[in-house]
Design brief:
Low-confidence stretches: 59-64, 167-171
Number of domains: 2
Mean pLDDT: 81
Shape: globular
Number of strands: 0
Largest sheet: none
């Protein structure tokens, strides 16, 4: 869902993955766990779906809304408008199922292209070269998009997970 942002398309990709696994079960040599093998198939099916979608409609470049959101976080001199809040114990938060629900919500609030590129890098662990080729962007553009995604994600998590409100830091 995080990659495709369409429940029907996500369901189709999962079904295609299971079908490919059933049809290719003879090729599963057991060199990895079944979960790893299925995850690999799923990653390829997601990429195929993204390619199909990009052929049907071209991906737009990062919009003004995204740039405005990032710019609003900083003063003219480049320093934070508000210092980042302490997040407590991040390892404990990562284990919390509720955290992942909030993370998914925050990912959905990002511009679609930004969220997709962030997930390709951080969840699917694709290399810079693979992402640049897949999304037809330069490495510099990739790093800018990833930086913006992290800033947007940080702000969203501070508000929706850690409960920090905008002016709370100044008290």
């Amino acid at each position: 869902m995080l990659q495709l942002r369409n429940p029907d398309q996500a369901e189709d990709v999962v079904q295609e993955t299971l079908l490919a696994a059933i049809e290719g079960r003879a090729r599963f040599a057991g060199g990895s766990s079944l979960k790893t093998w299925l995850t690999g198939i799923l990653k390829h099916k997601i990429l195929d779906a993204i390619r199909r979608k990009s052929r049907e409609q071209s991906l737009s470049t990062a919009g003004d809304d995204e740039t405005g959101t990032v710019d609003a976080m900083f003063k003219q001199d480049g320093h934070w408008q508000e210092a980042p809040a302490t997040w407590g114990d991040p390892e404990q938060a990562l284990e919390n199922r509720k955290f992942w629900e909030v993370f998914e919500l925050c990912s959905r609030l990002m511009p679609e292209r930004t969220a997709r590129i962030f997930m390709l890098r951080e969840v699917m662990e694709m290399t810079t070269e693979e992402i640049c080729q897949e999304c037809a962007i330069t490495p510099t553009n990739l790093w800018v998009i990833l930086h913006r995604a992290r800033l947007i994600l940080r702000e969203c998590l501070e508000i929706k997970w850690f409960g920090h409100k905008k002016n709370e830091h100044r008290r």
